[in-house]
Structure formats: structure tokens, C-alpha cells
């Protein structure tokens, strides 16, 4: 008998139907030579410290670092989880072959491997690897099964991620809690420290500190209106400085030019192309859903995962925005499957996927198809299955995915960019504009609700809109104009939203707008696309961050924690990103798991040593200069004699 193990009951039931295993049993389906069962996600987990040795039950600095000689796993969950595990174990014990039908990714591989190990699997194991759950994709996947040894590096990367999170999380949390937390016994506050959550929290705390300590500067801008068009003065300045720093200086400039005519000195027009927005990876989808619909990262992940399980979109936990070449011949069928829902598809239905250029052929652009930028899975796209049985929120997410997919096969948007230079007296002025000549792919989005333009506390409006078209100016024309002086004040950085925090995690804290550069930085991001939403949720649950409108604010507890942590490794987005890069190298077979584990142990020991060597307490949460010291029964700041108000704790 061949035993297939899916990651969830719904997926297992569908695979069973495709395979003809139609007899429902207790915890599995059977038929046609197959038994199809399922896990409930993470059925197994690493042991807790006290399950390795009794010495690690009590929280003592002397017992740190905790580094097991060999990591072991257990069945983790309630009675229902143990019952389902026993079903899987009994089936595997009698199986001739096992087929791993878990999610085709690092986490899915780890979930399944741990179950097989715990169940004592001794028979051959094959791997089903599919990017969608349509019947055709599943049948094709079963026709191309591979031995699980082909995915050994993927498993090792997932295993090292889990072990790394255990080693640093368990040891750092205990070390910082023992040394710095207030209270004792059951009342002691636990300072939760994690490999990914702590640098993410540090990003929020750092941004908040930049805002809190921001000192606004007043400056002035000189503009002038000519033919109902606002021109901006071009005054050379050093980087970081402002041309007009006093009202008197600005008024003198206005007086010098107000009676002189404005002369158009040049009109430059350049035609250009705007390419369709990229297809979605998980992070970019979460970003857009947060901007447009205020969905949290976790909510978007749940919605797109549901769409995948309902077979209407492809595998969601991806970090690429490209398709592989083998998808190209399947595009016409996918477009035909969704034509009843999107009239924008109609112009594409007559095009053939023949790889040729010109009329009658479906475009095949390197901006969409690139095998070098696709590893395990391609970008998120529709499968062509009709999206009939989906919720209203799922429909919003589905529409975004589908519209981006459709737009990828439309012509580029042709634009004309205009730059007009003018002069009055010794002062140069400039204005830019843009005109859409042929909308191309933009027609796909004409009916899409754009909620991202709704104002919130993070919005900043510009005086001039460089995207609007300009009047027809002629070089040499001149006339009267109306100069004006605008007082401006520098603004602090914006608080993170979930959208901008996801981008910061993706690029290890670097602010990057360019899509190509952002793609290059993904390998060094904090966490994986599949884990970032859970990390943000964990920070909410632990009350380290909170929402105010769309903004994310660090709480006092979160700020205190970051000020307490003395190890730069635990707070550094860049160092954590480099660690993530090594995990990806393990996945590709370019770095060994043993090398990484040795580094993990060394880093963990270093974190614990830093805490043990630091005899002072945590930084004072009030003055951030002194340290918290213990009195007979209470706590206070070491600078209480110097006036720190935290002395009230004594």
C-alpha cells in the first residue's frame, strides 16, 4: 500500500479524490492502492529544555548555555493531535512506500520529515512537489515523483532554522529574564528574545526614537505661477541643506524677480515606457493588501493560503516575482479559465503562446519569465480554476493576483515626460509633467478600487504633481508670473505600518524603492516570506508593539527590552539577514548544516557570556543612562541621587 501524507485535512481529501481513494476511514482515505492521510501543520516540535535534563528545569544563569548534545523531537499538541499522529504511524508501519504531500517549501519539508522520523518510517519516501492543487497539477506531480533525498538540503535548512531559533530563543530569553527582569517567581516578567522577532522589534524602536528625537527645521521654497503652472526655483545647495533659511532672504528673492518676465528657456520631451507591475511574491502581496484594504500580514497569508487550498491560486509562500519558462505554454488556458470574471482578458484570448514576437503572439518578457530567478516555486498567479466558492475578502486578494497576472501580458504603457526650464532675472525655474500616450497595461486596472489614496496620519502631500500633463510651452515665450514664498517645516520619518515593516524585514532594514535592488537584497532579509507575518503577530501578542491607526508603535515594554539587550547580534537586522543568507546557502548545498550549527553554538555561548559578564542591571527605562539596581524588596535607578525619577521604586 502507498501512504500519502498531506499537511492539512482539506488538501488530503482533495488528493484522495484525484487518486481515487474514495473510502473514508478514521483519519484517512483509502482506495485504488493508496491511503491518504494528513497532519495538522506542526505535529512535532523540538523538546523543551527540561525534557533533555532535569538540570534545565530551573531558570539559573549557571545552567546556561543550554546546548543539547543531540536535538530530539516530540509529538506536540492536544489529544486530537496525538490521535492523528497514531493514525499516521500505524499506516506508515504497514506501508510499502510513503509519498510526502506536504507544502512544497522549507517549512513543509521539515513538518513532514519530523513526523516520519517520529513514526519510525523505514520504507522508501517519495516527494510530491507541486505549485498548485489543480487536478492537472496534482496528476502531473504524481507522474514526476522524486526520491526524498533530492530535498535533503531543503530539510537541513529547515532543521537549522528550527534549532537556531531554539538555541538563541531559549538561552537568550532565560539569560535576559534571569539577569534583568523585574519581579521574582511567578510574578517575574519574562523578557522574550528571538532570532527574528528581536531585530524586527529593534527596527520599530529605532524608528520611534528617530521620530521622538526629531528636531524640526523651518525653511522656505521659492515658486512661481506662470500660465496656471507652478514652477520651482532651482537653487544649488549642499546635500542636507536648504537654499532659503530665513523669510527675509526669501522675500528679497521674490522682490528681485516679481516685476521681471518669466522666459521659457527650454522644453524637453522624452518618450518612455512604463512596465506593468511585477507579479506577486508573498511579501509584495501582503504589502499591497495592507495599503489597499488594511489587512494585516497574517490575515493576507491566511486568505492567500485558503485560495491556494481552494485551487484558484498557486503556492503562496514564495519570494520570487518571476515565472519559469515551462509556465509559458500554459498561460492561454489559465487566461481562458478566468475570462468570465475579468473582461480585460478578452484581447489576450486570440494570442498564441508560440514564443514569437509581434501581433498574434503572447508576449514573453524577461521581466516576467526568468528561470534564473525561480527556484522551488514561481510567483503567485491564478490557476485558471473558476473562483466561485470564495469569500468577499478572498475575492479582494484574488483580484489583485489576477489583475497583476493579466497586466503582465498587455503592452507597455507609453508615456511622454516633459521638462520645462524657465528663467527670470538670474533665477532658474523648472517644472516636469507626464502624459500617457497609450495606456497599455493600465487599462487592466481601470476598475480596480484604489484605497491606498485614503489619507491617514502618515500621508504627505506634494505641492506639484509631476504625473500631470503640462500646457504646450514654447521655447522663448515669456510673460508675467506670480512668485510666492512657501514656508515649510522638515518632517520626521514615518512610523512603520505593516506594509513598510514587511519591506524593512525583506531588505534587512534598508530603505529601498527600486524593485530590482530590492530583489537583490531579499536573500539577506529578516525571516522568510512565510514567517514574517507570524513574527509581527508574536510582537503584538507579547505587547511589544501596538497599532495606532495604521501605524505600528513600540510599547514601553518593547522599548525597555531593546534597551536592555546588550548583544548587537540579537538586535542587528543586518547580522540576522546574513544568517538568513547562510540558511539559503544550506538549502542550495553551498554551505553545510554542521558549519552552521557550530556557528550557532558559538553565537549562543557568546550571548550568554555577555549577559553573565555584565554585572550591572538593565538600562533604566526612564533616563536610559543609569542601570536598574535591586534594593531589599524593590528596584530603582543607580542615578537616583542625580535626580532620576525611577528612584521612586525604592
Summarize the structure in words:
The termini are far apart. The protein has 19 helices and 20 strands. With 650 residues, the chain is α+β, with helices and mostly antiparallel strands. Helix 13 crosses helix 15. Helices cover 36% and strands 16% of the residues. The longest helix has 29 residues, at 152-180. The strands form five sheets. Strands 2-3-4-1-7-8-9 form a seven-stranded mixed β-sheet, with helices on both faces. Strands 15-12-13-14-11-10-16 form a seven-stranded antiparallel β-sheet, with helices on one face. Strands 5-6 form a two-stranded antiparallel ribbon. It has helices at residues 9-19, 49-52, 79-93, 106-118, 135-143, 152-180, 197-212, 247-257, 282-293, 297-309, 331-337, 392-407, 498-506, 515-521, 529-541, 556-564, 568-571, 573-587, 593-613, and strands at 2-6, 23-24, 28-31, 34-38, 44-46, 73-75, 97-101, 125-127, 146-147, 218-226, 229-233, 262-274, 413-424, 427-438, 478-479, 482-489, 545-548, 551-554, 628-630, 635-637. Mean pLDDT is 89; it is low at 449-464. It is flat and about 95 Å long.
Secondary-structure map with pairings?
Blueprint: E1 2-6, H1 9-19, E2 23-24, E3 28-31, E4 34-38, E5 44-46, H2 49-52, E6 73-75, H3 79-93, E7 97-101, H4 106-118, E8 125-127, H5 135-143, E9 146-147, H6 152-180, H7 197-212, E10 218-226, E11 229-233, H8 247-257, E12 262-274, H9 282-293, H10 297-309, H11 331-337, H12 392-407, E13 413-424, E14 427-438, E15 478-479, E16 482-489, H13 498-506, H14 515-521, H15 529-541, E17 545-548, E18 551-554, H16 556-564, H17 568-571, H18 573-587, H19 593-613, E19 628-630, E20 635-637
Parallel strand pairs: 1-4, 1-7, 7-8
Antiparallel strand pairs: 2-3, 3-4, 5-6, 8-9, 10-11, 10-16, 11-14, 12-13, 12-15, 13-14, 17-18, 19-20
Amino acid at each position: 500500500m502507498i501512504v500519502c501524507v498531506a499537511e492539512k485535512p482539506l488538501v488530503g481529501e482533495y488528493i484522495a479524490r484525484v487518486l481515487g481513494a474514495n473510502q473514508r476511514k478514521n483519519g484517512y482515505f483509502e482506495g485504488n492502492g493508496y491511503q491518504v492521510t494528513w497532519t495538522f501543520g506542526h505535529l512535532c516540535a523540538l523538546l523543551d529544555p527540561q525534557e533533555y535534563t532535569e538540570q534545565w528545569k530551573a531558570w539559573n544563569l549557571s545552567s546556561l548555555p543550554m546546548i543539547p548534545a543531540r536535538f530530539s523531537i516530540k509529538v506536540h499538541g492536544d489529544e486530537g493531535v496525538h490521535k492523528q499522529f497514531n493514525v499516521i504511524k500505524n499506516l506508515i508501519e504497514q506501508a510499502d512506500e510513503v509519498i510526502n504531500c506536504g507544502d512544497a517549501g522549507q517549512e513543509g519539508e521539515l513538518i513532514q520529515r519530523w513526523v516520519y522520523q517520529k513514526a519510525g518510517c523505514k520504507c522508501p519516501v517519495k516527494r510530491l512537489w507541486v505549485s498548485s492543487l489543480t487536478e492537472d497539477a496534482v496528476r502531473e506531480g504524481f507522474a514526476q515523483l522524486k526520491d526524498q533525498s533530492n530535498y535533503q538540503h531543503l530539510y537541513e535548512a529547515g532543521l537549522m532554522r528550527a534549532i537556531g531559533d531554539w538555541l538563541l530563543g531559549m538561552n537568550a530569553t532565560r539569560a535576559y529574564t534571569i539577569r534583568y527582569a523585574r519581579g521574582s517567581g511567578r510574578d517575574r516578567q519574562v523578557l522574550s528574545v528571538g532570532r527574528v522577532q528581536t531585530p524586527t522589534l529593534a527596527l520599530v524602536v529605532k524608528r520611534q526614537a528617530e521620530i521622538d528625537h526629531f528636531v524640526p527645521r523651518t525653511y522656505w521654497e521659492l515658486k512661481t505661477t506662470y500660465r496656471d503652472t507652478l514652477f520651482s526655483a532651482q537653487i544649488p545647495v549642499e546635500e542636507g541643506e536648504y537654499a532659503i533659511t530665513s523669510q527675509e532672504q526669501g522675500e528679497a528673492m521674490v522682490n528681485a524677480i516679481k516685476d521681471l518676465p518669466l522666459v521659457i528657456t527650454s522644453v524637453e520631451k522624452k518618450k518612455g515606457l512604463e512596465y506593468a507591475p511585477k507579479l506577486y511574491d508573498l511579501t509584495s502581496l501582503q504589502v499591497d493588501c495592507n495599503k489597499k484594504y488594511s489587512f494585516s500580514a497574517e490575515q493576507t497569508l491566511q486568505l492567500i493560503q485558503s485560495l491556494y487550498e481552494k485551487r484558484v491560486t498557486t503556492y503562496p509562500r514564495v519570494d520570487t516575482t518571476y515565472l519559469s519558462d515551462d509556465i509559458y505554454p500554459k498561460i492561454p488556458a489559465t487566461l481562458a479559465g478566468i475570462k468570465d470574471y475579468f473582461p480585460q482578458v478578452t484581447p489576450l484570448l486570440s494570442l498564441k503562446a508560440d514564443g514569437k514576437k509581434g501581433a498574434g503572439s503572447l508576449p514573453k518578457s524577461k521581466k516576467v519569465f526568468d528561470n534564473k530567478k525561480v527556484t522551488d516555486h514561481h510567483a503567485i498567479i491564478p490557476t485558471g480554476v473558476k473562483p466561485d466558492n470564495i469569500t468577499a475578502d478572498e475575492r479582494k486578494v484574488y483580484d489583485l493576483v489576477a489583475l497583476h497576472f493579466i497586466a503582465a501580458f498587455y503592452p507597455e504603457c507609453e508615456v511622454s515626460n516633459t521638462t520645462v526650464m524657465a528663467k527670470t532675472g538670474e533665477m532658474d525655474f523648472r517644472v516636469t509633467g507626464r502624459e500617457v500616450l497609450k495606456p497599455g497595461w493600465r487599462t487592466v486596472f481601470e476598475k480596480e478600487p484604489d484605497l491606498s489614496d485614503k489619507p491617514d496620519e502618515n500621508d504627505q502631500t506634494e505641492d506639484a504633481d509631476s504625473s500631470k500633463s503640462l500646457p504646450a510651452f514654447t521655447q522663448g515665450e515669456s510673460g508675467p508670473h506670480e512668485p510666492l514664498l512657501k514656508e515649510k517645516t522638515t518632517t520626521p520619518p514615518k512610523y512603520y505600518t505593516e506594509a513598510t515593516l514587511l519591506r524593512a524585514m525583506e531588505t534587512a532594514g534598508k530603505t529601498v524603492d527600486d524593485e530590482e535592488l530590492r530583489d537583490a537584497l531579499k536573500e539577506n532579509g529578516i525571516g522568510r516570506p512565510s514567517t514574517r507575518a507570524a513574527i509581527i503577530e508574536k510582537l503584538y501578542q507579547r505587547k511589544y508593539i501596538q497599532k495606532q491607526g495604521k501605524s505600528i508603535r513600540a510599547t514601553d515594554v518593547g522599548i525597555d527590552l531593546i534597551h536592555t539587550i546588550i548583544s548587537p547580534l540579537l538586535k542587528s537586522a543586518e547580522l540576522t539577514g546574513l544568517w538568513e543568507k547562510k540558511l539559503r546557502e544550506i538549502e542550495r548545498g553551498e554551505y553545510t548544516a554542521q558549519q552552521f550549527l557550530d556557528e550557532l553554538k558559538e553565537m549562543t555561548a557568546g550571548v550568554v557570556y555577555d549577559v553573565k559578564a555584565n554585572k550591572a542591571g538593565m538600562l533604566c527605562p526612564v533616563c536610559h543612562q543609569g542601570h536598574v539596581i535591586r534594593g531589599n524588596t524593590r528596584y530603582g535607578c543607580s542615578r537616583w541621587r542625580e535626580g532620576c525619577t525611577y528612584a521612586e521604586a525604592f
